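Sequence and fold
=================
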Amino acid sequence: MSLADHHKILFEPVAIGPKILRNRFYNVPHGTAYGVLRPSTWASYRAVRAEGGWAAVSAEFSSVGPSSDEFPLHSSDIWDDEDGRRHKLMVDSVHRHGALAGIELHHGGAHAMRRVSREPAFSASGLAPELPPPAGPLGTPKVMTVDDIERIEQAFADAAVRARDVGYDIVEVLAGYGYLFAQFLSTFHNRRTDEYGGSLENRARFWLETLGRVRDAVGDDCAIATRLSIETQGPWGHSIDDSVALVRMADPLVDLWDLNVGSVLDWGSDISPSRVIPEGRNLELFARVRQATKKPVVGVSRWTSPDLMAQAVRSGVIDIVGSARQSIADPFFPQKVREGRIEDIRECMGINHCISSLDRGNMTCAQNATAGEEYRRGWHPERFEPLSRPDVSVLVVGAGPAGMEAAIGLAKRGADMVHLVDSVDQLGGHLGPVVRLPGLREWGRFIDHRMIQIDKLPNLQFIPSTRLSADDVRDYGASHVVVATGARWLGTGLTPGTHEPLQGVVEGASWVFTPDELLVRGKRPAEKSHVTVYDAEGGYMGTSIAQLLADEGYKVSVVTPHSQVAAEGDLTLEGPAVRASLHSSGVAMYREVSLTSARPEGVIGVGEFDQPFSLKSDALVLVTMRSPIDDLYQELTIDREALHEAGIEAVYCIGDALSPRPLAEAMFDGHRLAVPGHDIGSGEPG
């Protein structure tokens, strides 16, 4: 296969100042949770993106000094020469694959964490002569003096020189996301009366002076870029009209514009989940800014379709496709487009596991198990080392996320035969019904990608509508068995917080429902019922069920013991939009309430301070916790002698059947079984 004509525009080189991008794919700055604290992991992660064909690969935001210490967040400091040496490891790894290396210089201002440096935060100004500045994360920031401004400008220039000296090709000044320069641009933060406040030109002065210093410092050695958030939500940002004016002001100082939307206070506007925001929705805003510059423009908009990317470039609205999440999901996206292998692309699903996992210390992806594991485990997204014993025959029971991933990996490693068996007639396991929930259609990309790969592998066969007992498995003739039979939602109301079922709940009662009964078996409460959804899990399921039932005409209430409805959704950046949608649909929401009992007439519980809670309703949906369906695994492994007599060398349990977890972790479990380090050809039973 070859490059399609309508995609050729994406592979035209683009000049940015003194540098040339080999194509129009730009891996924009994004966090990894690694940075200078884990430099080898960081370098290997970035290198794979360069190998996959991205023309430029950027580091995450890099703070220029201790007053912008962001620990424990995922910043990459560039304060001194030691930091520089760690950056050089990443830069060299990117250059080895022919890509340009970019760095985003950053200062958080009032939002900086400063937990290690213990420096005071900086604020653009106080709200008025008699009022302090807006509060930062750990206290009231210090209003910046002109001397402070001078020192920070010099810190950016020094960091730029340090970046140039370790080999960075592109030096970007971050003026977005509500950080320091954006705070000066904002009339919410900036109430100064000196030359750095008042008019838009004055509020932009600090940023413009810094850009000028950075350009003077690195000369013609680097391309100079700036990231500008061109629109934000709420009072703390600036308008699209202001952005057009700002681009005109700064245009002589930059070689490249990197445009996004949103701020640290409405991050979901930029890193938008597919559940609430469609792909490419920023194009109209980019078109407004396009009129103000002839310099190359990088635009980010959760691009996943090469067709839409090419259309955006051909329209002239953007020159370069900026991407973070698609590069995580498939580092080899550009190469696959160039080779005409569109069907092999792992499209980002917009689930934002990559975002929620960052604050927990390790980036994960629901499409790509190898993300972040390139150095530690030696994993590669496209290369599969042959099995040490390719003569193995593998039976995978369960075609959900873990089972599909394991079966594909083992087949790609050359197993003689892999049979993927499921009791239903479709691939996907629990994910199949999930993608029919409101807003979750794009999650089906997980299944679509793996269905294509299964069809391509001659040594992998999917066998649908087949339920296997332990005797069936022993008689199957496989040398290795993988049990990936998933999990089920409990119908008792048992929660991790109480370790007790709800009093009065009888599993299977006509007024009690689980997600499995609603989505798989199609059961519903009586028409016009008032339904209580008890969401003790806090993930996507409870609020999705509530939205589904509300859309179907039920009166719905959500009760959760968490401090917020859709608690996990706040980490994946969809929480506010999900709550707004539920509110618009008439769904009542009760937070920090733990139910203690339920009956057909309603539910009873206690609030945060042990105050009584009761709610009348006709039906109860329990979204509390899942239990592994591991009966087959337990029955097989309890009789080792029978396994030996059947010629079964090993039995493995993976995914939700081992431990119910989010999609990214279940898929990861299947991949881990299939790849080197856990060589299935040499395993022991159990």
